[in-house]
């Protein structure tokens, strides 16, 4: 994995999130992925379980419900790549409604490990809500 590959994976991650397309989400992850919404969560284990979690079909600790289309966006980039390990940062924005005003912004840090095929096999997210400025 190099920085360009990691950044492309992150772009695909955002597009898969926006699409809520089962196949597109699944393509991001290894069959035996371990996915944590928070570092202290028990991992969601396995590709199909991650897909079901993203789609709101299964309840997992830390998972949110699917967001309404057009009410969110995000951009992330790799800040460190070491072999199969990638650390990325970025921000997720949530709008009042489709095309509406930004209500919340979260700053994110992802720690990920990839397999030889470029699929994520370990994913852990840290995030914090950015304070609103008057």
Structural class label: alpha+beta
How many individual domains?
A: 1
Please outline the major beta sheet. Answer: 6 strands, mixed
> Which class in CATH terms?
Alpha Beta
Radius of gyration: 14 Å
Low-confidence stretches: none
* SSE succession: HHEEHEEEE
How are strands sequenced across the largest beta sheet?
2-1-6-5-4-3
Description:
- With about 130 residues, this protein is α+β, with helices and mostly antiparallel strands.
- The protein is about 25% helix and about 40% strand.
- It has a six-stranded mixed beta sheet with strand order 2-1-6-5-4-3.
- The protein is globular and about 45 Å long.
- The termini are far apart.
- The mean pLDDT is about 95.
How is this fold's topology laid out?
Elements (H helix, E strand, L loop, with lengths): L2 H17 L2 H6 L1 E8 L7 E2 L1 H8 L17 E11 L2 E11 L6 E13 L5 E10 L5
Parallel strand pairs: 1-6
Antiparallel strand pairs: 1-2, 3-4, 4-5, 5-6
């Amino acid at each position: 994995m190099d920085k360009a590959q990691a950044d492309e994976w992150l772009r695909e991650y955002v597009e898969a999130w926006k699409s809520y397309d089962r196949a597109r989400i699944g393509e991001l992850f290894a069959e035996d992925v371990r996915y944590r919404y928070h570092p202290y969560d028990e991992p969601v284990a396995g590709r199909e379980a991650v897909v079901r979690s993203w789609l709101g079909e299964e309840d997992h600790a830390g998972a949110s419900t699917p967001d309404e289309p057009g009410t969110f966006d995000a951009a992330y980039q790799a800040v460190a790549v070491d072999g199969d390990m990638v650390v990325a940062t970025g921000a997720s924005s949530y709008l009042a409604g489709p095309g509406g005003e930004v209500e919340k912004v979260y700053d994110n840090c992802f720690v990920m490990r990839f397999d030889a095929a470029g699929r994520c096999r370990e994913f852990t997210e840290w995030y914090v809500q950015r304070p609103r400025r008057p």
